[in-house]
Amino acid sequence: MKKKLITASIVLSLSASMLAIPVFSAPSSNPSASIEPAGTLPVNPFDEVKQNLPKSVSSSDLTKMEALYNQSQKLQDEIYSLDIQYNDLLGKYKDIPSFQEVKKRLPSSLSHDELKKLEELYNQISKLRKEGKTSQTDPLWEQCYKILHPYASKEPAFDYGSKEPAPFQDYYGLREPAYTLPVNLFDEEKQHLPKSISSSDLSKMEALFNQARKLQDESYSLDIQYYDLLGKYEEIPSFQEEKIGFPNSLSKDELKKLEELYNQIAKLKKEGKTSQTDLLWEQYYKILNPDGAAFGS
Fold it and tell me: Are 174 and 126 in contact (CB under 8 A)?
């Protein structure tokens, strides 16, 4: 099993190029077999979620987890709404290259009609962005991809190993990469925003930013409570099973320390205190990975 850290990120801002389609960050994994679950709460109904939970979860804890889950979903919906409003405002001020610039990096084998259609779509997208309607551009992006996608496999120079045509992934393309808003104060955030933003729009953006920060803090708190409950029921392998994949170079003292840390972590999890194990995991992985290199798979 893999150790995953609880991540609570706000998706509100744009990348250096253009607006990101709102997505929630996937939970990250620490290298090595371990016992730590977590991550952002799933976005499917809890009735479906609980089918994948350990059967040993008590009815009282299941009720608590369902309440936490539904609260978190409500907060995420509110954050998503703020996301749209924030990005619609910011999209008005983000530079967008002309289609003539974009066209230089498109497949040379595109037909005249395809180029014409792409230009029409691109200009519609640009117009909507400048009108503060970036959130309405998704269907237009999909049409762009439908035209370009077949060329990704036909022209190697056009395919950078992505399912999406390469020129649509960066500043000179059409599709904006997803961007997670840094959890910093708006006074710092606005230093990276376009200087052309009007004072009225900047005030609106600051209010949206602060609202999202507050909701995100609440959501993070719910995540912690949820995974503390879930951790009590997660299957925990014995240290003897865990150490099978360890490097042979570990000393007797290192193995002893790892076992102590592992048992402390397992104990905290069973007590419903998964959120208190981070410092122990850090010590654990520092022994396994003193140089910070990836360990295991």
Answer: no
Token pair belonging to 113: 């009609």
In sequence order, what are the residues at sequence separation of 6 or more whose Cβ sits closer than 8 angstroms to the Cβ of residue 230?
Answer: 37, 53, 54, 57, 65, 274
Each residue's pLDDT tens digit, 178-226: 334 444 578 888 888 899 999 999 999 999 998 998 898 899 999 999 9
What pLDDT, in 10s, does the model give residues 243-256?
Answer: 998 988 999 999 99
| Residue-wise DSSP of 236-257 | ---HHHHGGGS-TT--HHHHHH
Strand 29-33 to 2-4 pairing: antiparallel
- Does residue 149 contact residue 165 with C-beta atoms inside 8 Å? yes
Cβ-based neighbours of 108, under 8 Å, separated by 6 or more: 155
Place of tokens 């959120």: 275
For the chain, give the number of residues. Answer: 297
